[in-house]
Structure formats: structure tokens, C-alpha cells
Specification:
Layout lengths: L3 E11 L4 H9 L6 E9 L3 E13 L1 H10 L3 E10 L13
Antiparallel strand pairs: 1-3, 1-4, 2-3
């Protein structure tokens, strides 16, 4: 199976723990080399955060478990890059 090199996920989490602490937990996961967390929306009960995760061999199941252990849930997987390297999107006529 091809290795996951980039994973973009939409995460719903309660106000606590902080976005910082969840990002740090994910960053410490084996195979993860970097994490970017961006707050998309906040309401009275939850925060909607976009996590962009990059690494040489990201284990989706482990990342999911780490996120769920913080009390958060993955709402959707928005992008996955697999293989020997990350293929960046390029504009096409359909864009």
C-alpha cells in the first residue's frame, strides 16, 4: 500500500483541549513531520479546525486515534497525497 505523505482533515473538537495541544499531539505521532491547524469556525460548543498533516509515512488510523483521544472527531478527509512524493495541484482549463 502506498504511503500517505499529506493528509488534510476537517476536525470538530470541543473548546478544550486547545487547538495547540491537539496539533502538538498529532505532530508527535510516528510518521508525522509537520502539522498546520487552522480555525475555520467556532460556535458555543465546538470548533471546526482544518488540519494539514505532512510526513514520510502517516498512519491514518494512529492519527485518528490520537485525535479521538483528545475528545475531537474527524468530520471529513478533504485531501490525501500518497506515493513517493507529493503531487501539487496545477490549474487546468476546468478550473
Amino acid at each position: 500500500m502506498a504511503t500517505i505523505r499529506r493528509l488534510v482533515i476537517d476536525v470538530l473538537k470541543p473548546h478544550e483541549p486547545t487547538m495547540l495541544s491537539v496539533a502538538q499531539e498529532v505532530a508527535e505521532t510516528t510518521g508525522v513531520e509537520g502539522v498546520n491547524a487552522l480555525l475555520l469556525e467556532m460556535d458555543e460548543e465546538v470548533r471546526n479546525i482544518k488540519f494539514t498533516i505532512e510526513g514520510e509515512d502517516i498512519d491514518f488510523d494512529t492519527v485518528s486515534e490520537v485525535i479521538e483521544d483528545t475528545g475531537a472527531r474527524i468530520h471529513s478527509v478533504d485531501q490525501v497525497a500518497c506515493g513517493e512524493y507529493i503531487v501539487e495541484d496545477t490549474p487546468t482549463a476546468m478550473d
